[in-house]
Amino acid sequence: MRYAVLGTGEVGRTLGGKLAELGHEVTLGSRTKDNPTALEWAAGAGGSAGTFAEAAAAAEVVVNAVGGRVALAALEAAGVANLDGKVIVDVSNPLAIEEGQLRLDPVESDSVGEQIQRAFPHARVVKTLNTVNCQVMVDPARVPGEHQMFVCGEDAGAKEEVTALLGEFGWPAHRVLDLGGIRAARSLEMYLPLWVNVYQSLGHADFNLEVRRAR
Amino acid sequence: MRYAVLGTGEVGRTLGGKLAELGHEVTLGSRTKDNPTALEWAAGAGGSAGTFAEAAAAAEVVVNAVGGRVALAALEAAGVANLDGKVIVDVSNPLAIEEGQLRLDPVESDSVGEQIQRAFPHARVVKTLNTVNCQVMVDPARVPGEHQMFVCGEDAGAKEEVTALLGEFGWPAHRVLDLGGIRAARSLEMYLPLWVNVYQSLGHADFNLEVRRAR
Fold this sequence. Notes:
Two copies of one chain form a homodimer. Chain A is α/β, with parallel strands linked by helices and 215 residues long.
């Protein structure tokens, strides 16, 4: 498959690297054509680097791995025509540190997942992976147990495609919990403060939630 | 021990019933002295019923089991002098349904746990149990696995006392995860929308989170 991964931070490089390792064609997208981090990544991972628009134009599936607060700007730069009909995998969190405090924006009455789906109504947005560190995203076996990955989105076919992608990453389908429509992106994004508290309590990011259930 | 459980809803009655079953003296507190639900509970469970102030005055430990949005009003009715120096176990969520949508208030920039600690600075507030259904609160074995209970609060001694109480409910100490100061009540309350989504996905409330970790 041909993937665009938007964002050259640790999340984008890690996801892009794993996709390339799995044999996919990957373009790491950034604001500028000659982003040194993206070029270095491309040389090392055997992928390509380009602008957001170049990456999205070449791709069948677009992964949003920029920060949640700049996601709409990056996708607008990618271009609506380059996104129409495509699956957008949104792994972002609308996270910022303000005066030493973690803050989310939007929060509770909206989510980045919904913002993207509203802004690009012909794209098929699936929210997933935002509840774990990027190392765990692409290597869930770092954490023992039958821990969960969540997905939500409006398009059942898109969720199936993303579930298959999660399977390539090491998340078997029985551990993928479908939370329904894209509105559930709110609850997935609102989990982040608890993730941060658990991270601070454990002292590392190699953890994830297993939803234990009576039946 | 002598407990006040503020609130005559399902959460209050369930917690009060378990505490009475464990041999504690329990007063179920409500706005009025002759609340029929509280009187019926008292007759059945072998506890007492009274106003918020009567319940708190008689108690060594106060459990806030009214809804998060009315918690301050209930505790003010209980009376600051009846709360001074006492452990307040806050199990509430600031939850309301507005136009068919789940809403939290406060959210993200504050929490009920913090509101209570600020309003009653000489009380020792511990936030816990708000992340599970009340049946699971008092009978964690309904759900298989080593799933977690979270605590947070400013007073280490109070957290130890509450951890011992959780032990009586069936939560062994190694499954109680301390998230630090009362500010973490924000993240525990913000988990609620995800709880609701998982509840809707599974179709029942007999579930809880196990924090799986590499180490």
